[in-house]
Amino acid sequence: GIRMRGPLPKGLASFDETVMLFERDIEKAKSLLDEAGYPNGFTVTTHYPVWRNIADIAVVLQANFADVGVQLDLEEVPLGTLVEHVVNGTSPFFPWVSTPTYADPDAALYPKFHTTAIAFGAAGNVGRYSDPEVDALLDEARTNPDNARRLELYGEVQHIVTGNAAWVFLSQNVTQQPLRSWVLGYEIPVIGILDFWGVDIVK
Questions:
Q1: Could you tell me the pTM of the whole model?
Q2: Strand 171-172 relative to strand 2-3: parallel, antiparallel, unpaired?
Q3: Sign of the CA dihedral with 55 first, then 125, 83, and 166 last
Q4: How many of the other CB atoms lie within 10 Å of CB of 87?
């Protein structure tokens, strides 16, 4: 995979290459903990399922948290139990894989960051993020017929939610498929079904 820069996958309309990337800075992290009233760190539990590479990621996160004095306790649970914790708001820190259901920034941003989407359960705003400014931007983007303006609004949302550390965006899967030299016009869609309309076979 590749490292994610904000909440939109690379290749989706309105993806912004200028969205900030958080870099590892142990001293700054310790300073922020001290400012927040946790000079000696704290302990937090993360629930995680054995699925794909989630368990490996949890172990890496545990080691990184330890470097700044935060004890991350790992609790392996079935996927259904994790979903239950997330929906009920009883897991303070958890891994989550999210894939937009259609090829538009709205599919990635509205369900995960609009306040009303908290009510959508596991399909919605699982982090319970709420920001009136983001809500207003997403509402306008949903109703504005000017596509250029919509993409501009979604760009603003990317910068805000990333700057607020609404999520820790880790990685985006990369699909690689071999092609014969005589297959022309084939493209792997960022999201959605394969489209063979423009594909030619030239031998």
A1: 0.85
A2: antiparallel
A3: positive
A4: 15
